[in-house]
Design goal:
Layout lengths: L3 H31 L2 H32 L3 H34 L10 H21 L4 H31 L4 H30 L4
Helix pairs in contact: 1-2, 1-3, 1-4, 2-3, 3-6, 4-5, 4-6, 5-6
Length: 209
């Protein structure tokens, strides 16, 4: 029989990783909007901690399953934790990609004022917070519906941003590099929302999807 404290400690470790990854994403967007290369560099450096936390969570989860052979909801919580840790690591990687692009963007004049990207990122950040609540609480169908609606909003923003930036690229070859970086940033934000849905879907389905 697996002690409840073992499961609770494991869940706490995963939530700490979630808090870190949310912070990395927030800081990567702050650095982008404020053209703060120092903050972007810090995100890149701190992402190593997320990688370390993911490795520890996966290792601990594997050891718990091997030692206690949990069944039922405890097994689901441990195995889901392993999957979620992997997804959180990928979200951290997206924050790192955004930060790399930000560093390069700060070396050139700003292409255009940020309008849709901050809105898109705000929706993604909210989705990330909502998706993590699924791991420690009962599945909420209303929140799941909100997440699906939010993803549609992000997809719309991504398409609009890409269409607008393509116009900038057609105006002048000098705009191409900056526009492409902004498009790639929007794609990274969009990918974060995809990972959020996968995290939430794990809880809805009761296992890996």
């Amino acid at each position: 029989m697996i002690p409840v404290s073992v499961v609770e400690n494991y869940k706490e470790s995963l939530m700490k990783m979630g808090i870190l990854v949310i912070d990395l994403f927030d800081k990567s967007i702050y650095a982008l909007i404020n053209r703060d290369s120092d903050m972007a560099k810090k995100v890149i450096s701190d992402d190593k901690l997320a990688d370390e936390m993911r490795s520890k969570i996966v290792e601990d989860g594997t050891l718990i399953i091997g030692e206690y052979a949990p069944i039922g909801k405890f097994l689901v919580q441990i195995t889901n934790g392993i999957w979620i840790a992997n997804l959180l690591e990928m979200i951290g990687d997206d924050s790192k990609k955004i930060s790399y692009h930000t560093i390069e963007l700060t070396k050139e004049p700003i292409l255009k004022p940020f309008v849709d990207l901050p809105k898109m990122a705000s929706i993604a950040e909210g989705m990330l917070r909502k998706s993590m609540t699924f791991y420690t609480s009962n599945v909420n169908e209303r929140i799941m519906a909100e997440l699906l609606e939010n993803e549609d909003e992000v997809d719309d923003f991504s398409e609009r941003i890409e269409d607008e930036l393509k116009l900038y690229m057609m105006e002048s070859p000098k705009n191409v590099s900056r526009a492409l970086r902004l498009i790639m940033i929007s794609k990274s934000i969009e990918e974060v929302t995809d990972f959020c849905l996968k995290i939430s879907s794990l809880q809805v389905s009761g296992g890996a999807v």
